[in-house]
Automatic annotation (TrEMBL):
One GO BP: trehalose biosynthetic process
Taxonomic superkingdom: Bacteria
Protein name (record): Uncharacterized protein
Organism of origin: Candidatus Wallbacteria bacterium GWC2_49_35
Phylogenetic placement of the source organism: Bacteria, Candidatus Walliibacteriota
InterPro entries in the cross-refs: Glyco_trans_20, HAD-like_sf, HAD-SF_hydro_IIB, HAD_sf, Trehalose_PPase
Amino acid sequence: MRLIVISNRLGVTASVNSGGEIVFAPSAGGLASALNSYLQTGRYKELGIDDYLWVGWPGMEIAPELRDGVREKLLKEFKCWPVFLPDEVMDRFYSGFCNRTIWPLFHYFPMLTSYDDREWECYNDVNNFFALSLAEIIKSDDIIWIHDYQLMLLPELIREKFKESAVGYFHHIPFPSFEIFRLLPGAWRAKLMNGLLGSDLAGFHTVDYTHHFFKCALRISNLENNLGKIAHGSRVTKADTFPIGIDFDKFNDSSQLEDVRSEIDKLRSSFAGKKIILSIDRLDYTKGIINRLDGYRAFLERHPELHEKVILLSVIVPSRVKVPQYQAMKKQTEEMIGEINGKYGSIEWTPVIYQYKSISFAHLAALYTLSDIALVTPLRDGMNLVAKEYIACKKNTDGVLILSEMAGAANELTDAVIMNPNNRESYVGALEKAMNMPYGERRARLDSMRRRISEYSVCEWAEDFLGSLLGVYNARLALRSKYLNPERVAKLAGDYARASKRLIMLDYDGTLVDFCPLPENASPDDELLSILKKLAADEKNEVAIISGRGRHTLEKWLGGVKMDLMAEHGAWVKTAAGDWHATGVFNTCWKKEVTALMRKFAVRLSASFVEEKDYSVAWHYRACDIELARERADDLRDALGHLARREGLDIINGSRLIEVRNAGVNKYNGALNFMKSDDYGFILFAGDDATDEDIFRSISSESYTIKIGAGQTAAGWSLNSPAELLELLKKLSSAD
Ligand code: GDG
């Protein structure tokens, strides 16, 4: 088994050196360093994964004649598979839809978001190009792990080509609330959701992002989740929370490295006697650099006694330098720093020391180790690894982490001084608290956060995700092992042909026909009727429809076929030769009260309605606003509870309906009316939902029990859809 990691940028970046040669260096950034750390440990082997391959763009355009050489070198030396894209395309893709649409929107900056059709097309093209490139290398038993917002369409594109592969997706930036996501044009948002739903497992940093994903699936794709799993068609997508960790040991042990020690010594002498407040960010509007400077200025204004005693060390790492907005941000930042230093500084003291460049690991680790306060105050951030790295470097030194509540890391690092980055007073208050915090409290807070990040480092994070992905994948394989493939269908058909007496029982909705928004529109078409007629006409066959519907509907739709019918989950049956009869004497005194209650709910929820049958009452909400419907459904269940206990009723949660019926009435008891002898040579029962599981569990294990659709089941076999079942029935009906 091989792990295929896919990200926009490879784990190594190509560049041309002064000698004109193409050289490679580890890529910068949180995602690349996290994955590099995990892959290099080889710990994936513990999951039964033998090897890995990292697929992505190599960081520059490679001339066609050089590609074979570059690919070979990347493959051999770095286990990387390059996706060759021209700079111009990559630029339009990355600077376009990625960073002018998804990035601002998902970080809650709708005013900075552009909605450009051509950029959307380019995003589609690049995702397609990745899929094409992957088609060359993917093997059927590979575990595929796609990373981040640049490749949100890729899970489904891979799924189209590799139906059986395990596909995981991890989202490194915030996943926004539905109210933000819906700002995207309808076709785009549907396609992005569909893209993500191609995965077996979608991972997010925080529980809020995961919930936002579920809500988007519900509102955009009309798909509900059950215990974190979304069933769609024949597939299931699980979504869960995996807060990314860091390579704890690397930072924890960094002060033992020679070059880090020498950086620490240098910094110590430069800043002796001063409290160092550190901030490190990529130049980006999401990081709230201006707000932070404004907050620091207010702090200096409020505390003249601290002048000359504190320094804000602001490291700003260049990013997206070609984008005018980022250039303007740089200018504004520098002007503000100039203003603060001009107003408060002196010959001996510079209140803000600013570096606009990438720094070495040694310098970074030394800054983390020595700084008294880390001021990590993004306006929005998926996780923020700087916060965790700062804590990890505090093995022998101490400090205080001030952390924005808008960073994903705030969910885990609850012992930080948590603040709101939108409010000037929050900066002042947080800095005051940090400056005045007693040593004991500083140490206790640091130790508690260090424990957390050492226990759930990048390796645990990756293992957690991959373990969960393998779990979903194995469950799918288990279900797949029940799939009635052509070979098994041939065996089933053989058993059918050999039997001289057969019983075929079929659920109706979701089994023989797809669900319709309005139940009255799910009538059988000519093809279905003709298949049923043919099956029923065979004298070796007894055919029965097992349904929860009312008998009048079944009679109208299926009464013309000479077969058994069961209505209202078994309260009514009609044998092929006889007429309808009730299978018991049922109490109906409760119906009036239940119907009145359900009617009240129907009035409160547009497009819901009540269906009154002889022995049961159902409240349907398929065509409704699904979220409100779910809340109302909970309320209704609650309101029905007392009555149900008093009258001995069952409350059934059907497929987008709640039904109340007498306890003891169920499909299996009803089906006993059709199992007239014990010498059937062939029994088949097909159903799709929870009400069919009773029969799956109860009838003989030699019977063919078939579940239609995805999900756990006691049935022996599975098919993906009513259409596949019809194919099978058609085959059987024309077998003789
Ligand atoms: C995303 C999400 C999420 C930065 N400057 C230098 C440098 N760095 C390193 C830091 C840290 C990483 O880069 C930045 O971490 P972030 O957490 O900000 O990650 P991003 O790359 O922005 O991207 C983010 C992350 O993915 C992981 O899921 O946390 O929310 O936006 O490791 O140390 N390292 C060196 N010199 C620098 O100048 N050596």
